[in-house]
Automatic annotation (TrEMBL):
<feature type="domain" description="Rhamnogalacturonase A/B/Epimerase-like pectate lyase">
    <location>
        <begin position="41"/>
        <end position="263"/>
    </location>
</feature>
<feature type="signal peptide">
    <location>
        <begin position="1"/>
        <end position="19"/>
    </location>
</feature>
<keyword id="KW-0732">Signal</keyword>
<dbReference type="InterPro" id="IPR011050">
    <property type="entry name" value="Pectin_lyase_fold/virulence"/>
</dbReference>
<protein>
    <submittedName>
        <fullName>Glucan 1,3-beta-glucosidase</fullName>
    </submittedName>
</protein>
<dbReference type="InterPro" id="IPR024535">
    <property type="entry name" value="RHGA/B-epi-like_pectate_lyase"/>
</dbReference>
<dbReference type="Pfam" id="PF12708">
    <property type="entry name" value="Pect-lyase_RHGA_epim"/>
</dbReference>
<dbReference type="InterPro" id="IPR012334">
    <property type="entry name" value="Pectin_lyas_fold"/>
</dbReference>
<dbReference type="InterPro" id="IPR039279">
    <property type="entry name" value="QRT3-like"/>
</dbReference>
<dbReference type="GO" id="GO:0004650">
    <property type="term" value="F:polygalacturonase activity"/>
</dbReference>
<feature type="domain" description="Rhamnogalacturonase A/B/Epimerase-like pectate lyase">
    <location>
        <begin position="392"/>
        <end position="508"/>
    </location>
</feature>
Length: 767
């Protein structure tokens, strides 16, 4: 015993010097609604996990996850019991699944990712099962699984016999979730049946920096939509099997020595299950069949299997695209690059033209590019080279985070102190109530712990005629400088008709400023006073409850701002109460989603969503050089009772849509409904995948089917004025009759683009 504890002491001394800062910083996170002593941070070693590759650590890891009784088996969802479960470097032997709770992040040492190694007789659906089948249905409704991450692990199934079913990670989840920096190691035997990543449902989502080695299938996936980038597949039989989707954006895939690269042939030509994929800046090396599709000129549904390829390098690829009838695009024994190619429906700018063949690649503005002509990308920084002493804790600096105290002054001084001391501000978990604008100055680097919330409150933010930012980045539009922000949430409390959750003023030259996993979450959770008790849904009643105006705008990028990289950013007005176990719907009103009116780019929107805002989800005006992919939107569920004429009067200075005027000019159906995407007088707006959805009419989904005529709203995409190089790949709309409008005129009609569940336009170019 004594010898053992000496070893442990020695190990912890060593780790105090070398370990990842997240393990070393003092842990002060507070979950104000979880009761006293609820541990936000858990180090699996403190719960008995050894990480020695010999001891079975399964029970200890699950004990760390379940400490404090978070939202696990049988719980619908929660925001009140957040957790970070931290794994120091080591090899953790497991014999059954690790079962993370809702709103729980599993994070390994970023400098030395721990290995989760399955025993030969491992039992379970995934080394990590992110949504178990305790019954015939998933534990959590997949489309309501938000706010969870898994980062920095090696998932190793090589000890499981190759012919025995095994899955690395089961991940049916949705928005504001992410996987980052994972390696899946699987056997390479000919009879292997292992699968690295499996998902069958959900409304994702974002995934980056995964490597799959071996196995029958690297990733086998069905989901509404996803953005995935930097995925590497080595020696898998099939790299990716797409089970079903509406739209999928893949960037930076590297598929090597696999027999099939991406298989989107599920369902076959008579019932194609893959709605669409957009694949760009990727390589296939030593792959006999790069892409296998079920699409033909006469396959069904008409546009299903829509595909756009751009900048795809082939090295020793037998067939580039193989259809049911044979080769659609040949490969090469040497090397070649597909500049751009596709199949589906094109509108250049009018259509549809049903096509399969080369297309003109998007002209890419140099400002949007990184290395080798590819679009610029940068994964969320994890600061693995910095010691714990580089971090300043917001709570240690005096902020309370208890959802009650006014933290305005304390949080501001913590931010300012971090910049002055050249440190990273670590916002310990908590709800930081603020009654004035929080200013993030140039030089700030901020990292949250399990999505701490900056919660606006009080009359300062409640004047619809004099809106105020909750978080302001850069003091004035065009202030020069650089920031990095990750892993926190901006929200509002009670009635906040004048709250602009994030105002982005900063003009960054050189390396872009970044927002990674920074979300706006408005309403529907404990502490907001915007829940069922205050704002129940009121189907059929067009009267607006004035106490349920909860935001003026989610995010405003102002005129002189530039140089912002956004990745996995979800600007969500809640449609339901996350903290109520029936997930009952609520009716709250947020005026606007994301508004970019910066006169010059660049801006990147990798894996962003904007949902349930009244006037629009995305609006771009007088701007340029913007990359977007995949974007996802939803119209408010109460639409059109009331419609978008209320309660936010249009503000001309913000280029708000004036539905009273535009719908008077021949607008039919539910014309006065939120735009999913509105682009005014803009240039080089390049959309690589868009899912613009309108599921509801007066809280009923009966309008969002082909048999009902997709009547939830009349129009959803508007391109107005000068539009130079405003191009959209794989636009998928639901519940909307006119898919694209140009200056009020219909360009694309839902019934011409029938896809699996959405309507699809494969290629739109404004000309
Ligand atoms: C809206 O739905 C409610 C109940 O679901 C119904 O009573 C009402 O008549 C509907 N109103 C309209 C305008 O469709």
């Amino acid at each position: 015993m004594r010898f053992g504890s000496l070893l442990l002491a020695a190990a912890s001394v060593a780790s105090a010097v070398q370990a990842y800062w997240l393990g070393d910083v003092p842990h002060r996170g507070l979950a104000p609604f979880a009761g006293n002593n609820y541990p936000v941070f858990r180090n699996v070693r403190d719960y008995g996990a050894r990480g020695d590759g010999v001891t079975d650590d399964t029970a200890a890891i699950n004990a760390a996850i379940n400490a404090g009784n978070p939202c696990n088996k049988g719980c619908a969802s929660t925001t009140t019991t957040p957790a970070v479960v931290y794994f120091p470097a080591g090899t953790y032997l497991i014999s059954s699944s690790i079962l993370p709770a809702y709103f729980t992040h599993l994070i390994g040492d970023a400098a030395s990712p721990p290995t989760l190694k399955a025993t030969p007789n491992f039992a379970g659906f995934g080394l990590i099962d992110g949504n178990p089948y305790y019954s015939p249905v998933l534990n959590w409704k997949a489309v309501n699984v938000f706010f969870r991450q898994i980062r920095n692990f090696v998932l190793d199934t090589t000890a499981i016999p190759p012919a025995t079913q095994a899955t690395g990670l089961h991940w049916p989840t949705s928005q504001a979730t992410s996987l980052q920096n994972l390696v899946f190691n699987m056997p390479t035997a000919a009879n292997v049946v292992h699968v690295g990543l499996f998902m069958e449902e959900g409304s994702g989502g974002f995934i980056t920096d995964l490597t799959f080695n071996g196995g029958a299938t690297g990733a086998s996936m069905g989901n509404q939509q996803y953005t995935m980038r930097n995925l590497r597949f080595n020696n898998c039989k099939t790299a990716i099997i797409q089970l079903w989707n509406w739209g999928w954006t893949y960037h930076g895939l590297s598929i090597n020595n696999c027999q099939v690269g991406i298989d989107i042939s599920a369902g076959g030509p008579s019932k194609v299950e893959t709605g669409s994929i957009t694949l760009f800046d990727s390589t296939f090396t030593n792959v006999p069949v790069a892409i296998k599709t079920a699409w033909t000129y006469s396959s069904s549904p008409a546009t299903a299997g829509s595909m756009v390829l751009e900048n795809i390098a082939l090295n020793n690829v037998g067939v580039a695209v193989q259809g049911p009838g044979g080769t659609m695009l040949t490969g090469t024994g040497g090397s070649t690059t597909i500049a751009a190619w596709g199949n589906g429906h094109s509108y250049l700018p009018n259509g549809p033209t049903n096509f399969a063949g080369p297309i003109t690649p998007n002209p890419r503005p140099a400002s949007l590019l990184g290395a080798n002509g590819r679009y610029y990308v940068r994964s969320k920084p994890q600061y693995e080279n910095l010691p714990a002493s580089s971090f300043l804790s917001a709570r240690a600096a005096g902020a309370r985070g208890d959802a009650a105290a006014d933290d305005t002054a304390a949080l501001q001084s913590a931010i300012d102190a971090s910049v002055a001391q050249n440190k990273i501000l670590f916002i310990d978990h908590g709800l930081y109530r603020v009654t004035r604008t929080i200013r993030i100055p140039p030089g700030a680097i901020i990292v949250g712990e399990a999505f701490p919330v900056i919660l606006s409150s009080g009359p300062f933010f409640n004047d619809i005629n004099n809106p105020k930012p909750v978080v302001q980045v850069g003091a004035t539009s065009g202030q020069a400088g650089y920031v990095e922000l990750s892993d926190f949430i901006v929200s509002t409390q009670n009635v906040q008709a004048g709250a602009i959750c994030i105002e982005w003023n900063l003009a960054t030259s050189g390396t872009p400023s970044g927002m990674w996993d920074v979300h706006v979450r408005i309403g529907g959770f404990t502490g907001t006073q915007q829940q069922i008790a205050q704002c129940p849904k009121t189907p059929g009643n067009p009267a607006v409850n004035p106490n349920c105006l909860v935001a003026f705008m989610a995010m405003h990028v102002t005129k002189q701002a530039k140089g912002l990289y956004m990745e996995n950013v979800w600007l969500w007005t809640a449609d339901h109460d996350i903290d109520e176990q029936l997930n009952t719907q609520i009716t709250i009103y947020s005026g606007r989603g994301l508004y970019i009116e910066a006169t010059s780019g660049p801006f990147w929107l990798w894996g962003t969503g904007s949902e349930h805002h009244v006037l629009y989800q995305y609006q771009l005006a007088n701007t340029r050089d913007i990359f977007m992919g995949q974007i996802q939107t939803e119209t408010p569920y109460f639409n059109p009772v009331p419609n978008a004429l209320v309660p936010f009067p249009p503000v001309a200075a913000l280029n708000d849509p004036d539905f009273r005027a535009s719908c008077a000019r021949g607008g039919e159906g539910n014309c006065a409904a939120a735009w999913g995407l509105r682009v005014i007088n803009s240039k080089n707006v390049l959309v690589y995948g868009a899912g613009l959805y309108s599921f509801f009419d007066n809280y009923s989904t009966s309008c969002s089917t082909f048999s009902a005529g997709q009547t939830c709203q009349q129009r959803i995409t508007s391109i107005e004025g000068v539009a130079e190089n405003v191009n959209i790949y794989n636009l998928n709309t639901i519940g909307t009759r006119e898919m694209i409008n140009r200056d009020g005129n219909r360009v694309a009609w839902y019934a011409d683009g029938v896809n699996t569940f959405a309507s699809n336009v494969g290629v739109y170019k404004s000309g």
